[in-house]
Design goal:
The chain is α+β, with helices and mostly antiparallel strands and 1103 residues long.
Length: 1103
């Protein structure tokens, strides 16, 4: 990443903050790395998500920088300085995504990005604050000073994010509650709206559909951080959607309401660009520094001039010597790397006496941030184990003879040698982590292996929890002055896991298991570049004398294209596909820790894998034909988890292939065929995709019985449908037949496919038949090498207590018994699932092949359609959800002829298309579903449309008039829903008719049990209209369901189709509106009305 163009004026920005140079190590070290290392060697890649300023990795109509700035405000905005809990920047927003105040997919995708960097040394709260700094800086704005030390919340806070419809007095009171006065409010609003805009999807009253490109209206005329929001408001032309246009009539012109709170005095002053930047730097810092009184923030962060990185001690054979290795990071912002002759490390022995000097001239790599640059000087030298090391100073020797000594504020840079985690002797084999440590013989405290893992939270919370485990290590042999200890722990995944060794006050911790090899080496072996990123080989040792000496370190091994990674062989540097992914099987993102070994492990079920853009891992059984070999030097990005490996580049894949398949041609490489499995199983040979079972495991064989289930044979998948349509569970790391049977307990059938996919069902679809070759089910279970777990398009099928499956077969057109189970178990996800998914999606249980779902829930895919001209293509009902899937959407639209998924998370329903909606190529619908990263759910202004089976056929001739122009053929006839009172544009011409579905007339229900209809009510001004309780059901909500859940309350109401709220009184600001405002049909009964956006179909207790 290049330095910002105005870096000259910012060279001294951090030294000008008036803080002392940091002392290493510090609690903010991890935050400092993420803040200042955006690109290059050992970079965290944080700034890459918002560079350039207008960029979004999630498609058109979004700007990641604006989303990062917005989440900072929303997390802070619920602060209450008058009561406890105080709130502030505490990441409580992760638990508040369903409260109606945090609309849009940007909150989830941002928190997923932040979660990849979150660990025991870096809170999500600090990353949220850092996101504000990065978003403003990437867009050319001022530096917002950053402090560290925020503490993450573990539950939701109160509501209270300002809404655009608020009156001026409410805004003033809300900001006062946060600790800000009227001037602060105006400044924070103007600075917050210097980038970004308003989405019509979530605020149609402000930006009507079809009035802005991609449904996104900018606050001003540029995506950059500038003061146009102020100058255009004062002098024109004012295009701020929160100031002019439809927002005025809708009383949602919030920016005007805020700016006029002091008669435009503050916003007028901000028309000066210097004033604007100064004000924004200050007010945004105050915003992110709003924390609970119990939180002690650090001084503002400044980059270290010199900082140790990846220091490691390693005990050598015989215990007489220790290898001391790592990097010294030198800031080169004001002095170029060319002006540095060498870097010296002058160390003291373990008693504080004179040790020696290590000199290096080797530059391991360079890195840059928004305003700074750095060079890393690598070193490796052997020192006596008896005298060892306790601290060191760094001397940077200039080419002109000028030397600068860095003593870490007089304390020296400390390094303890009492407890040493030995990376070469430790290993990660599958999920088993084995750690070996060397502990000084004088240490008497127990020695522990400490492991911290990320564990997914329930309830759709996108930020994982940290789970800590401690294992007492076992003492072994004594070598020299050290005793050797070992311990093991099972981890779910190397990604996001940290381990360390401790004894009393000594610890060697925060280690990355992904950098370990699969085999533990004997004592005396120094880790090679293929197994460790912190320990470097040495070819010359320092003198053993305690007198001062000078030793030249050997060069740090340069990054290489590894010829072999596990069972995969390097194929070369390849381009991405043209319009498609080169590898389309599955994708995993880890910009902080990615290595070749991590990607190979995640893609163990595939023939190919490749790493792109240093943190993106892709898998597949076929390489797209449009992916071609590129020059090897094109793949020049270094892996963040192992600086000795290359991890592709932009649009370039570091490509690997199963060694056993590498001699075959690309045209015959796919093993995962949808028509047949291509591997042959025998007692002595298994599929090349399966790992070889160790000699101690039982013989690989068919299991005739698993618990109460009896094997039925090797079966095909259904034709166009799932053979087993109930619940699904995916675990590509630990799946066994027993795990699948346990997850499917209570169902008639279970089957395992493709090694790690478990399917359940009460019936077996009639199109699923015994495979012609019963040896097709050849994939070995990843969690038990003695069992078979199906294959591509092949199920290892079991039935509850029976030897035949014929009695429970149903046709694919009448399979209904499994649908109820699917819905009832929709939240039941296997706890053993460890395979990570893309940062843009939630955990998925779908087959790991990105595809157009051909049919779901009685609906068939008919094509990709545009939105209408100024109207919704499918506008009768809407069910947006951050867990949206094709299956959930068609279930929500069960009363309608059409269901359409748009922009990943949106679900739309109707019986007719709005005027102007056109059929476009399938490739236009390119966004994955929010709840299923392996299925397509439309795109911006593109709907993935499904039609209910039986309401027309693809061969039926019908056409739709489009604004008087030539008609566009649609692959299904059009029918109208005569019985619906929902207003729909009458723009479709049709030559066919059908009866309305469902049967009956949609109408307001006068009574529901003991409750009578109260009317259509708005939400309250600043809080929920009904605050007693709430209950959501996106797929089956009915008035009766809400009444039952709110039993005991005086009032209840249903909003937005699926949201049920209860209370004993309506809060101030909730008013009655026309009954016709509540037009959304209930997803569980389309003949009932279940409110609308900001509208409650409400009932009152009358008995």
């Amino acid at each position: 990443m290049k330095l910002c163009s105005n870096v000259v004026g910012l060279i001294a920005v951090f030294s000008g903050l008036g803080v002392a140079a940091p002392t290493w190590p510090s609690a903010i070290d991890e935050l400092e790395d993420v803040m200042f290392l955006n690109a290059g060697y050992k970079s965290k890649g944080f700034g890459g998500h918002v560079t350039p300023c207008s960029f979004s990795e999630f498609g058109v109509g979004r700007q990641t920088a604006a989303e990062w700035l917005r989440i900072g405000f929303h997390d802070m905005a619920t602060t209450n300085i008058f009561f406890e809990p105080h709130g502030g920047i505490d990441s409580s927003i992760a638990f508040e995504l369903n409260n109606g105040e945090n609309l849009g997919p940007g909150f989830v995708s941002t928190l997923q990005t932040y979660s990849a960097l979150y660990n025991s040394r870096l809170s999500v709260s600090d990353i949220i604050a850092l996101g504000v700094y990065a978003s403003v800086r990437a867009c050319g704005g001022p530096v917002v000073p950053i402090r560290g030390g925020r503490i993450d919340a573990t539950a939701a806070g109160p509501q209270g994010v300002p809404q655009p419809q608020n009156p001026q007095g409410t805004f003033v009171n809300q900001f006062a509650r946060m600790g800000f006065n009227t001037v602060d409010m105006i400044q924070m609003t103007a600075c917050g709206h210097a980038i970004g805009g308003v989405h019509s999807e979530f605020f149609p009253e402000i930006v009507p559909a079809g009035t802005a490109p991609n449904g996104y209206a900018l606050f001003d005329n540029t995506p950059e951080f500038d003061n146009n929001i102020a100058t255009r408001y004062i002098s024109g032309p004012n295009t701020d959607p929160l100031s002019v246009g439809p927002s005025v009539a809708a009383t949602r012109n919030a920016d005007t309401v805020v700016f006029t709170a002091d008669k435009n005095v503050t916003i007028q002053a901000m028309t000066n660009p210097t004033t604007f930047n100064t004000v924004c730097s200050s007010i945004l810092q105050r915003m992110i520094d709003t924390v609970a009184p119990t939180v002690n923030l650090s001084d503002p962060l400044a980059p270290y001039e010199v900082k140790p990185s990846g220091l490691q001690l390693t005990l050598l054979s015989g215990g007489a010597q220790i290898t001391f290795s790592g990097d010294i990071r030198v800031r080169t912002t004001t002095r170029s790397a060319a002006s540095i002759l060498s870097v010296q490390i002058i160390y003291k022995d373990r008693t504080g006496g004179v040790g020696g000097t290590i000199t290096t001239t080797t530059v391991s790599g360079t890195a840059t941030g928004f305003d700074d640059s750095f060079a890393f000087y690598g070193f490796s030298a052997n020192i006596p184990a008896t005298t060892s090391i306790s601290s060191f100073t760094v001397v940077v020797v200039g080419t002109g003879g000028l030397s600068t000594t860095y003593s870490n504020n007089g304390a020296g840079f400390p390094i303890q040698d009492s407890v040493i985690a030995l990376a070469p002797q430790s290993c990660l084999s599958g999920t088993n982590l084995t750690v070996v440590a060397a502990v000084r013989t004088g240490i008497t405290s127990a020695v522990s292996l400490d492991v911290t893992q990320k564990v997914a939270r329930t309830g759709g919370v996108p930020v994982p929890a940290l789970a800590n485990a401690t294992v007492t290590m076992v003492k072994g042999a004594t070598i020299g002055p050290y005793a050797i200890y070992s311990g093991s722990s099972t981890i779910a995944s190397a990604a996001g896991t940290k381990y360390g060794v401790s004894s009393g006050t000594f610890a060697d911790d925060f280690k990355d298991p992904a950098s370990l090899g699969a085999t533990c080496a004997p004592i005396g072996t120094v880790a090679s570049s293929s197994t460790s990123s912190s320990v470097v080989s040495t070819s010359r040792s320092s003198t053993s004398s305690r007198a001062s000496s000078t030793t030249s370190s050997t060069a740090v091994p340069t990054p290489i294209h590894k010829p072999v990674v596990g069972k995969y062989s390097f194929q070369g540097c390849f381009t991405e596909g043209t319009g498609v992914r080169a590898l389309a099987g599955a994708a995993f993102v880890d910009y902080a820790n990615m290595t070749s070994e991590i990607c190979a492990s995640n893609c163990a079920a595939y023939e190919y894998w490749g790493i792109e853009y240093y943190g993106e891992c892709y898998c597949g059984d076929e390489l797209a034909a449009s992916s071609t070999q590129a020059p090897l030097d094109d793949c020049n990005f270094i892996c963040p988890g192992n600086p000795n490996e290359y991890c592709g580049a932009g649009n370039r894949l570091e490509l690997y292939r199963l060694t056993s398949a590498a001699t075959s041609s690309r045209s015959s490489s796919s093993v995962r065929s949808t028509s047949s499995a291509s591997t042959v199983r025998s007692s002595s040979s298994v599929s090349s995709r399966s790992s070889t079972a160790p000699t101690s495991t039982p013989t690989l064989a068919i299991k005739p019985k698993v618990g109460n289930y009896v094997r039925q044979g090797c079966y095909t998948e259904g034709t166009g449908v799932r053979a087993l349509a109930g619940a699904q569970y995916v675990d590509y790391v630990g799946m066994t037949l027993e795990i699948c049977a346990s997850n499917c307990a209570g169902t008639t059938y279970f089957g395992v496919e493709y090694g790690g996919e478990c399917y359940c069902g009460q019936t077996l679809d009639a199109t699923s038949v015994p495979a012609a070759n019963q040896l097709d089910c050849s994939f070995v279970c990843p969690g038990d090498a003695s069992e078979y777990c199906g294959a591509g398009n092949r199920l290892e099928l079991y039935m509850l207590g029976a030897a035949s499956s014929s009695s429970s077969r149903v046709s694919s057109t009448s399979s209904s018994s499994s649908s109820t189970r699917a819905s009832s178990s929709s939240t039941r996800v296997s706890s053993s699932t460890t395979k990570p998914v893309s940062s843009t999606s939630a955990s998925s249980t779908a087959v790991p092949t990105l595809r157009i779902v051909p049919s779901a829930g009685g609906y068939n895919y008919i094509g990709c359609y545009t939105e209408g001209d100024g109207v919704r293509a499918l506008g009768a009902a809407s069910f947006p959800s951050d867990t949206n899937t094709v299956e959930s959407c068609v279930a929500s639209c069960a009363g309608y002829k059409y269901a359409g998924m748009e922009y990943g998370r949106e679900c739309w329903c109707a019986d007719e298309f709005g005027a102007g909606s056109l059929l476009v190529p399938n490739a236009d619908c390119s966004m994955t579903c929010a709840g299923d990263p392996y299925a397509y759910c439309g795109a911006g202004n593109r709907l993935q449309v499904y039609q209910k089976a039986g309401t027309g056929s693809a061969s039926t001739s019908s056409s739709r008039s489009v604004s008087g122009s030539s008609s566009t053929s649609k692959p299904a006839s059009t029918t109208s829903r005569a019985a619906s009172s929902t207003s729909k544009p009458a723009t479709l011409s049709t030559s066919t008719t059908s009866s309305a579905a469902p049967q009956g007339t949609q109408a307001i229900k006068p009574t529901i049990g003991a409750y009578s209809y109260y009317g259509c009510q708005t939400e309250s001004t600043d809080i929920r209209a009904l605050t007693g309780g709430f209950f959501f059901n996106e797929t089956a909500m009915t008035l009766e369901m809400c009444a039952a859940n709110c039993a005991g309350f005086k009032y209840w109401g249903v909003e937005y189709g699926a949201e049920c709220y209860c209370g004993n009184e309506f809060q101030v600001g909730s008013v009655a509106v026309p009954h016709t405002d509540c037009t959304f049909p209930c997803p569980g009964n389309a003949l009932e009305f279940c409110g609308a956006g900001n509208r409650l179909s409400s009932y009152v207790l009358t008995v």
